[in-house]
Write a structure and sequence with these properties.
Keywords: DNA-binding, Phosphoprotein. This protein is an alpha/beta fold. It has ten helices and five strands. The protein folds into two domains: 133 residues, Rossmann fold, CATH 3.40.50.2300; 62 residues, Arc Repressor Mutant, subunit A. Strands 2-1-3-4-5 form a five-stranded parallel beta sheet, sandwiched between helices.
Length: 202
Amino acid sequence: MTADIVVTDKNPLVLAGLKSLLEAEEGLRVVGTAADGLEFLDVIANVKCDVGVIGWEMPGCDGRAVLDAVAERPDAPRIVIYTGVPGTRVVREAMLYGAAGFCHKGDSNEALLDVVGSVAEGRMSFPFTDLRRLADDPWETLTRREIELLDALKTGRSNKQIAVDIGITENTVKFHLKNLFLKLGVKNRAQAVATALSRGDS
């Protein structure tokens, strides 16, 4: 199965290199490129893709804004943050905003391919050291939308009812719930609610 990728970078040389690297990998196909966040959103509005590779600090529309915008789209691509911004703060922030993977520009090409490949297969992929810091409390990785949906699950509402009440599509609800279950290590809404209640959330 081939995963369709849209790649973004403000540097034309880096963008060309990323495109060549990903296209040379079996199972990956670059179907679009963009120079910044706004252009990325325009591209994915017209070209269906499975994974988007974007920067964090981009002119006009940064990684945070892109992740917020993508989360509201039905059949949204999973996002990999590929950035040169140093420090662990950006990794945690990317997780909180709903990214599915993270790779630093200082890492090897093989590391980027591993991250993109894992995300394309439906897994989350973040630096091991940062995941260890968050492992003791996966609740810290939940996005604002995921917390909102978890609260809605406690009321027993269906996906359709939640979508209407929050003002998003039912497909978007399913997208967020899938990520929520993955982060909490549960398989369904009943387990998610039970986990929340056992934690003391009411």
